[in-house]
Amino acid sequence: MSASPTPQVTPAPPAPVIFDLDGTLVDSEPNYYEAGRRLLAGYGVPDFSWEQHSRFIGIGTRETLEILSGEFGIDAPVEELLEGNNRTYLELARAHTAVFPEMRAFVERLSAAGHPMAVASGSSRSAIEAVLAGTGLDALLTTIVSAEEVAHGKPEPDVFLEAAGRLGVDPGDCVVLEDAAPGALAAHRAGMRCIAVPYVAATADDPAFLSAGLLFKGGQGEFTARAAYDWIGQPVRSSP
Which of 46, 47, 213, 222 has the largest count of CB atoms under 10 Å? Predict the structure, then answer.
């Protein structure tokens, strides 16, 4: 009696991966802080501190400027503030933006394995394009979404859902890389798995991070491309 044929198991396709940009792929927050500090100084707001800036990490530039203009009583259109901020930021970004080494290794590993990838950021499209081009990541990350292109920025899920749509994939199949709590919350609301790599250590216990599938509480100093890649390859467990 012949043995029954062994059933063929079709491997799951490579999971789509969506990256936040600032603080996740690249260490651009110092440039954003300096651009904001110079902008506010020009409108009569001296001594804008890093601590004040850190409240807005993970929040889109437009939303940040709307809040700051209200707090400091700046009587200028948000579009004017946004244009000035972006102009200064782009000058700084083109001069130097550092890529986190393990993140670059992770992107390269995902690309080699055929994972669809995108960038979804609260930054302007021009800023995203400048940073990716200046770091050479534009060769591997060709699908990008700016919060300016959707109705709502993070913590709403719009940018991640738009990225999934442009990749032509199901949001539930996607994995998001995030450094800020609003972004991790946006990923959860989009129905996507999340790898959280907190940029600000003090936020590592935020509930939004605790709901992430994989949390590197030590931030970029703890993150490794191998650990993240191995986690993505694990079977997705369905909820009981």
Answer: 213
What tokens appear for 130 in the block? 């400048």
Query: Are the beta carbons of 116 and 146 closer than 8 angstroms?
Result: no
Q: Which are the contacts of 65, defined by CB distance < 8 A and separation ≥ 6?
A: 78, 81, 82, 85
User: What does the block give as tokens for 220?
Assistant: 């970029």
Read off the pLDDT of residues 64-120 as tens digits, 9 standing for 90 and up: 999 999 999 999 999 999 999 999 989 998 888 999 999 999 999 999 999 999 999
pTM as predicted: 0.83
Structural tokens at position 200 = 């600000």
Alpha carbons 191 and 170: distance in angstroms, whole number:
10
Distance CA 87, CA 72 (A): 21
**Residue-wise burial string across 208-229, b where 16 or more C-beta atoms lie within 10 A, e elsewhere:** bbeebbbbbeebbeebebeebb
Is the CB of residue 18 less than 8 Å from the CB of residue 174? yes
Three-state DSSP at 16 gives coil
HSE-CB of 2 using CA atoms within 13 angstroms: 3
**CB-based contact 120:162 (threshold 8 Å):** yes
What is the edge-to-edge ordering of all strands in the sheet holding 175-178? Answer: 144-146, 117-121, 17-19, 175-178, 193-196, 214-215
Q: Which residues of 49-73 are buried (b: 16+ CB within 10 A; e: fewer)?
A: eeebbeebbbbbbbbbbeebbeeee
